[in-house]
Each structure stands twice: as structure tokens, then as C-alpha cells.
Amino acid sequence: MSAPSPTAPGRPHRLDVLIAGGGLSVGALLWVLGLHGGPPLFGLPAALTLLALTVMAIAELLRRTAPMAALALAVPALALDICTGTLVATVLMFTDVVYAAVLYGPPAAARRLPVHSALVTVLATVVAAAVWHSPQVVLVGIGIALITMAPAWTGVITRNHRDAAQTARLRAEQTALLAEMDRTQAIAGERARMARELHDLVANHLSAIAIHATAAQTIDDASATRAALGVIRENSVQGLAEMRRLIGLLRDPQATAGDEPAATPTLDGLEALVEQARANGAASGLAFTLDDARRPAGPGDPKPPAPVALAAYRIVQESLTNALKHAAPGEVRVRLADAPDGALTVTVRSPYAHRPGPRAPGSGAGLVGMRERIALLGGEFEAGPARGPDGRVWLVRAALPATGEEEQR
Q1: What's the domain range around 330?
Q2: Is 396 helix (H, G, I), strand (E, B) or coil?
Q3: Whether residue 261 sits in one domain with residue 243
Q4: Which end of the chain has fewer CB atoms < 10 Å from its terminal CB, N or C?
Q5: Does 136 lie in the same domain as 101?
């Protein structure tokens, strides 16, 4: 991993300009004062030291924007400097160029340069020992190592720390992003759950209120009007009580996402639910029956899990509400049965016919809520027109596993 250059390509960094200018100034001052490292070799003029110093300063300008090109300039400049008397400023700038080449160069160069610097140090020490045969060769080897190996390995350490910090920062950003995604999904899931509960709690009662209010307005019969108003009052009171239970749950700071209202509906309440639908739909020519074909539960047989029982209750409740609003006059049949694989099947058949409009307005969210409930439990759901023994019917069928996915989680 390599960090991008902090400046545009070809434009030296401000700090690199300062380093190059400072090194060039100090080197020129040392040359004027005659503070060379030694006499020129091979009869070269001492003035070439200034050429090596200038080239090294140019390499410093490129240390970030083009680190490998800077190293390519610095190596011959150092060789020329050594052969023409050696200025300390030139040598120090060379070590900085090596350090920058490892730190800012490509990953492959950062891996090779420390190894190559070690090989150069060993080779130069061996050659010096073969030529001079002096104990001072050890000092020469140490000096070469300080010029080549020390800056290279310092660059490796710095680069590793920088890459580790960048990796940790990216990991922290990814963790924060995942946490935000989880939070968003949790909020969306909770809002969907609240929408389902609000719809299931009030839709049945409000539909009955709308149907009987319409009947009270259109039928010029005092007894029928009183009966309709009685149904309206009963559904209003029940809907208000259920809304209060849900509001109490939402306001409870100790409540969790899996909690339900205190009076959670169960399958034992289906008879009362069908009886209520029977009373609400009598004026529309609807008859409601409940067929519980489940195997009789023994003393030690477990009851369906609470999420399964609640989902089955809500599916029947929503199906009966839809029948009150849309079904043609006839029999609405609710059937519960045990599937061979142990799943609980809920089937609701209602007479289906094209009507000019529903008896009460609806939003279409009921089918969406039923599908969501079944999907959360890992079951199967289908709803739509079908052929029945008595003609065309609207069929709602749900298969609920004995143990829902929500419990497995």
C-alpha cells in the first residue's frame, strides 16, 4: 500500500524545496571554507564537487513527486562527490533521498531497496578490505551502512507504521459504515413492524365502523340504525383499547424489539374474532365459519410458538377485514390444519366477484404486511383468486413452520 503523492506530479513539495535549498546552501558554504572530506581522486578537479552537490539538490526536489527518478540522480551524484573530495551536505541529502525512495516509492521498490542496500554495503566492505588490508575497513563498512542501509530500513519502518495506520483508519471507517447500515436496517425493520401492528390493530375495527356508518346513513330504519351504531361503538371501544396497549408498549423504556402488547392474541381467540366478523358482516350478506382441523393437543404436546400463533391470528384478522370490505355475499371460511411436515396452515376462502367498489376504503398494506410476517418466520404465503367448490373465491393461504426463524435467531 502506498500513499498518493501529496502534491501534483512535477511540482515539488514546499518542504522538499526547503530541504534542497538548505542542503545546497550548506554544501556551498562548506566548499568555500574548504571543509572537504578528502582530496579529489583520479585527478578530477575539486570544482566537480559543486556539480555533485547541485545534482543532489535537484534529486531532493523530486523526493516525493518522483522518488525513483530522484534516486537515479542521487547515486551517480554521490559517486562523483566521493571522487571529488566529498561534502557532508551531499552525503546527508543522499541518505534522505534513499529514505524518501523507500517511503514514497512503489511497493516493489520499497521491498527491494533495503535488500540492495545491504548487498551494496557488504560488497563495498569486502572490496575495501581486499584493497586496503587495514582494520579501518570496519569503519568504512559502518560508514557505508549509515549512508545506505540505515535510511533504507528507517524508511521501511516508517512506511509500515504509516500503512498500518491507514489500514486501521480504513477498518474503522468500514466498521462505522457497517454500524450505520445495521442501525438503518434496525430502524427500518422496527418501523415496518410498527406499521404492521398499527394496521392489524385498527384496520379491522375501522373497516367495521366505516361499513356500518355507511349502512346507518343509507338505511331508513331506526332499529337498523341503532344496531349499526352499536356495532360502531363496540368496534371503537375495542380499537381504542388495542391502540392504548400498543402505545403503552412503545412508551415503555424497558421494552425490546421482540416484545408484544401485554394481551398478545393467540389462536384461542380466533373463535371470538370470527364471531365479531360474523356480527359486522351480517348486514352485507356474509357468513363466517371457523374450521379447526388441527390434531387435538395432548397434555404434553407443546403449543405453537408465540410468533407463529400471533402471525396466524393476524393473517386471519386481516383476511376477515378484507372479506368485510371486498367479498361478495356468501360464506367466508377459515380453516386451520397441520401439514405433514409439522407446519401450521391457515386458509381463508371468501366469495370473489367484481364489485363496483369496496364497502370501506383500504390502503393495500394488508397483503404486504402478511407477506412480511410470513417471510420473517420463514414460511410460505399466497393470496389471489382461485377456483373453489362453490365457484370463484379469493384464497389466502399461509404455511407457518412449527419453529419460526425469529426464534432460531
Answers
A1: 176-408
A2: strand
A3: yes
A4: C
A5: yes
- Beta carbons within 8 Å of 74's beta carbon, 6+ residues apart: 55, 56, 59, 93, 94, 97, 98
Give the CATH number for residue 302.
3.30.565.10
Same domain, 349 and 222: yes
Query: Following DSSP, what letter does each residue of 10-57 receive, concatenated?
Result: TS--HHHHHHHHHHHHHHHHHHHTT--SS--STT--TTHHHHHHHHHH
Q: Are strands 344-351 and 391-400 parallel, antiparallel or unpaired?
A: antiparallel
CA distances from 357 to 141, 324, 328 (A): 98, 12, 11
C-alpha cell at 148: 545506505
Domain count, the chain: 2
| β-bridge pairing 286-292 and 344-351 | unpaired
Here the cell at position 316 is 386471519
Label the pairing between strands 330-338 and 344-351.
antiparallel
Q: Do 209 and 114 share a structural domain?
A: no
Output the tens digit of pLDDT for each of the chain's 409 residues.
444 444 445 588 899 999 999 999 999 999 999 888 878 888 888 889 999 999 999 999 999 999 999 999 999 999 999 899 889 999 999 999 999 999 999 999 889 999 999 998 899 888 888 887 777 888 888 988 999 999 999 999 999 999 999 999 999 998 888 888 888 888 887 777 777 667 666 666 676 777 667 767 766 777 767 777 777 777 777 777 777 777 776 676 565 544 444 456 778 888 988 888 888 787 778 899 999 888 876 666 677 888 888 888 888 988 888 888 888 888 999 999 988 877 899 999 998 877 665 555 555 667 787 888 888 888 899 988 888 777 788 899 999 887 654 444 4
- Cα torsion 356, 358, 362, 363 to 10°: value is -30
* Among candidate residues 408, 260, 390, the one with its CA nearest the CA of residue 333: 390
Q: Residue 384: left if φ>0, alpha if ψ -120 to 50, beta else—which one?
A: left
Beta carbons of 324 and 205 less than 8 angstroms apart: no
**Cα distance from N-terminal residue to C-terminal residue, the chain:** 39
**pLDDT tens digits along 264-286:** 677 888 898 888 888 878 777 88
Residues 263 and 396 grouped into a single domain: yes
